[in-house]
Amino acid sequence: MRTGWCVRSFLQAAGRRAGLLTLLAATAWPVAAAEVFFEDRVGPLLGQRCRDCHGAKTRRANLDLSSAEGVRRGADSGPVIQAGDPAQSRLYEMVHSGEMPRKGDKLTAEEMRWIEEWIREGARFRSEPVAEARLHKHDVLPILLLRCSACHGAELQRGDLDLRRPENLLSGGKSGPAIVPGRPDGSLALQRVEQELCPPKDQLLKYFVERPAPGEVDKLREWIAGGASMKEVPPDAADGRPDPLVTDADRAHWAFQKLPSHVAVPDAQGSVPLRPVDAFVQERQREHGLKFAPEASRVTLIRRVHYDLIGLPPTPEELARWREHPSDGWYAEMVDHLLASPHYGERWGRFWLDVAGYADSEGGTSEDPVRETAWKYRDYVIRSLNADKPWDRFLTEQLAGDELAPHAGAAQVDDRVVEQLIATGFLRMGVDQTGSRTMNFVPERLGVIADALQVLGSGVLGLTLDCARCHSHKYDAIPQRDYYRLKAVFQGALDEHDWLTWKTRNLDVAPAEVRARHDQASAVLQKQIKTVEMRRAATLKSVQERYYQERWPQVAKDEQDAILAALKADAGRRSRSEEERVRRYETELKPVERVLVERHPELGVQLRACDAELVTLRGRLPPPLAVRALWDRGRPSPTYLLSRGEAHRPTRLVGPGVPSVLTDGRSPFIADPPWPGADKTGRRLAFARWLTQPDHPLTARVLVNRVWAKYFGSGLVATLDNFGVLGARPTHPELLDWLARDFVDSGWSLKHLHRTLLLSRTYRQGSLAGGSAEADPDNLLLTRMALRRLDAEALRDAMHAVAGRLDARLYGPPASVSVRADGLITDDPAADGSGHRRSVYLRLRRTEMPSLLATFDYPEMQPNCIQRNISTVSLQPLMLLNNSRVRELATAFADRLLDAPEESEVIRRAFEAALQRPPEPEEQAAAQETLQRAQAAWFDSGLTAASARRQALAALCHTLFNTAEFLHVD
C-alpha cells in the first residue's frame, strides 16, 4: 500500500475541518512527498516565460521548451536536464545564473525552486516519450568516417572496402559482406571492431585514428540488430520554409540590413564646397556646435600621405617636388602619383596580410616548419592591389580561385589559372600542425578548419563566427547549425575525413613554357650546387681525418671506419657493437664543425668560400613551381553538427549554407559544378558570389570601415571584427553606408575609395585639438586628425630608407632572418646575398619574428589580426637607444650627409630627411652646439678630425631616430 495514497484518501474523507492538523500531527504513518511532474508547474512556467526565445516556432539554439518532447530532446549542444542533478543541468544553470529568460523579468526564487525540485526528483513527465525511430545510416556514418575511413576511404581502400557509404557494408570487399542486417554477431565488421582488430593496434598513430568508444560500438551493434537501415534523411538546410531558429526581429539589426541602393548626402553648410564625406561629418559636428580643425600644412600632408599610402617617408627630392609644386591641384596629383607607385601595394597589401594571418611558417608547439612557397600568396596580394583588381574579384579568387577555371590538365594551365590557385592560400594561413607525427587527428584538423572560418568571419564578414562552433551564439542570431552549414561550404576542400596535410596540400602547376625554362635553369644550377657541396664535404672530411689521426693515433683506420659507420646508422637499427662504439666515441670522434675550424683556421677560410659560392648559386635558382593552394576535390564527406564542437559527438546532418540572419531564411543555397564535367562541388564559388552581391549587408561595409580605421585611427564602427549585437554602433551610420555604396558603384575599386577619403577635408585636417578637446575628447566627431604612431614595418622601413640602406626590389622569396646568440633576431642580407628589404618581404616565421618588429607590436597571427595593438612599453625606447642595428643605420644616415660643407647644411638635410621639415631656429642652434661639443670630445679621445665629425653626426642622426616626431605620422 502506498502511504501517499492513504493520506490523500483520508484527507478527502475528513475534509478541511478544524482539528485536522492536530490529527495529522498525531498519526504515526510516514508521509511521502507528492511526485513532481513536468506538466504540473515546470511545463506551464517554461511555456509562459521562455516561449519568445524557445518556443515551437522560435527555437534559439534549437531548443524548444514549450513541450515535454522539446525538453527531452535538448539543444544542439546536448541535453539540458540531468535527472537527479540540478547542478549538472544546463536548464537550471541558465535560470539560476539569471542568463534566462533574457526578455522580461527573471524567474523568482520560488519558480527556480520548482525547476530545481523537479530535476532533483528525477525530471519526471506524465506523458510518455514519443518512440524514437530506429537507427539509420546517418547515425553510424559519422562513426565510420571518424574511425574507419583512414583505411577504408577515398585514398586507401583496404580489402577493397570503401566505408564512406554505409551501403558498401552490405556488398563488402574481398572478405565478403561486412555486415548481415539483423545479425550483429554474424557481421564480420562488427566482430573485428569488438575484437580490437580494426582499427589495427599497430597502425593507430600511422593513420591518426582512435578506437571506437564503447558507446559507438553499442550503436553499431544496435543499428545492425535493427536491420541496418539505409534510410536517407534530408540535411538541415534552407528549403523555402520559415527558419525557426532565426527571426525577422533578429534580422532587424542595422548591420544585417541590405546595403541601400542610394544614400542621400546632407546639404553642406558654408561657403567652401565640401565633398560628400565632409558633408556627413559636418552634419554631426554642427549638432554639437563643432567644426573642422584648420587644414594641415603642406609639408605635414606630404609626409602624412606618403606614410599612409606607401609606408615610406618622402625622399628629399619628392619633398621638394611637392612642396614647391605651383599647381592648385598639387595634392590630388600627389595622391594619384602615390597610388600608382608599386610601393602602394606593399603598404596596403600588408594590411590584408594581417587579415589573412600571413606567416612564413606553419606554427606549432614543438616545431615551426617554414612554408617554402607561402610568399607567392604575399606577392599575389601586392600585385592585385597595385593593379586595383576589383575587390569582388579579389575576394572571389581567394575563396574559390580553383573553381574559376580548370587546372588539372597541363593544356589548361596559364598564368591566370596559376594566379587564381595562389590566391586560395588565403584560406591556408592559420596554424597547421597536421604534418606532425602526433598532431594529425581529426580534432587537430577541425582546428585548422576553424581557423580558416575565423579568418573569414572576422576579416570579411565582421562576425564572431567561432563562438558558434561549440554552441549557438549567445548574442548574435547565429545558431550552431549555421556554423556547420558554413563549414559544409568548404567541405570539398577542407574535409577532416579526407585530409591533406600541409606537406601534401600543394599543386605543382605552371604553363608548359614556364616549366620548360624552369627545369632547364634548375638542372644547370643544381649540378653546380652539387659540385660545390661535394667540394665542401671533401674539404671537411680531409680535416676530420687529420683530427682523428692527431687525437686517436692508436685507433686503426678500419676501426675508425667502423665507428663512423655506427654514427651514421639509424639509431633504431644499430647492432650491439655499433651501440657500444657510439656510446664510447660519439662525443670524441664526431666533432662539430666549429671544433675543427678552431683547430684548423685555414679550414674556416675554405668553408666560408664554399658557403659564399653556394649562397650565390642558390640565389640564382628559379623559385619552385609548387603552389600552396586550396582546391575542391569533388568528394566531400557529409557534414554533421558537432555537439560542443567535439569530433566524437556528431548530431544531425546539415547541408551547405550561409548565415540565415544575412538572408531571408528561406532561400536555398544552390551550388552547381562550376563547368560541365567539373570534379568540384562549386560550393565555395557559390558562396563567393553570394558574398559579393552589390547589396550584401556586410562585405562592403566591413572593408570600407577597415580602410577608414587605417586613416583615422578608429573605425566608424570601432569593433572592426564585430558588427554584431555586441559590436560598437557606427558613429556615422549614413556615412558608412554611403562609402560602402560608393565603393561598390565604383566597380569595387579600392583606389577609388582611397581617393575619396584622402581628398576629403576630414582627412586634410591638422591634428591639434584646439577648442575641441573638451567637447570631443575621443575625436568621435572627427574634429581633428588623429595622432598615429608608425607601425612596426613603417618604422623599420623608414630608418632603412633614411639611412640609404633599403633594398627596393619587389616580390620574390622572403629575405633571410638570423637569430643571434643573445636572442636578437634581425634580417640577414649576407645569408642570401640580398640587401635590407622592406619588412613585408622578411621571412616572418612565427617563432623567429624580427626583434624590432615584435617590439613595436607586430601581431601574433593566432590565427590573424584585424586591428593592431599600439603599446607604449620600456622596451621600445631601449630598442631604439641601444640596438646595434639602429646605431648602424644612424651611422649610415650620417655618411649620407658628410659631403655637406657647412654644419648648418648638414643639420638642415638631416632634419628634412628624417622629419621632412627644416629645423626651427632653436633646434638649429642646439644641434650645432651639440655637434661641436661631441666632435671635440671624440677628437680628444684620439680619433682623427674626420672620424670625430662622423661619430658626432651619427649621434645627431641617432637622436632624430629617437624623437617622437620621427615615430609618429604627424
Give a summary of the structure in a few sentences.
With 970 residues, the chain is mostly helical. The chain has 41 helices and 8 strands.
Structure explained in plain terms:
With 970 residues, this protein is an all-alpha fold. It is built from 41 helices and eight strands. The strands form four sheets. It has a two-stranded antiparallel sheet with strand order 1-2. A hairpin with a 7-residue loop joins strand 3 (639-642) and strand 4. The chain is globular, with a radius of gyration of 35 Å. Residues 1-32 have low confidence and may be disordered.
Task: Give the helices and strands, then pairings.
Layout lengths: L2 H12 L5 H7 L11 H12 L1 H4 L13 H6 L16 H8 L11 H12 L16 H11 L20 H4 L16 H7 L9 H4 L6 H12 L50 H12 L10 H13 L5 H8 L6 H10 L2 H15 L18 H12 L4 H10 L14 H9 L18 H20 L18 H10 L17 E2 L3 H40 L5 H12 L7 H14 L3 H7 L1 H20 L5 E2 L11 E4 L7 E5 L28 H9 L7 H14 L20 H13 L4 H9 L13 H4 L16 H11 L3 E2 L9 E3 L5 E3 L1 H4 L3 E2 L13 H5 L19 H8 L1 H12 L7 H13 L5 H20 L4 H17 L2 H4 L3
- What is the molecular shape? globular
Mean pLDDT: 90
Helix/strand-derived category reads mainly alpha
| Tally of contiguous helical segments | 41
Number of strands: 8
Q: Strand order of the main beta sheet, please?
A: 1-2
- Per DSSP, what share of the residues sits in E-state strands of 2 or more residues? under 5%
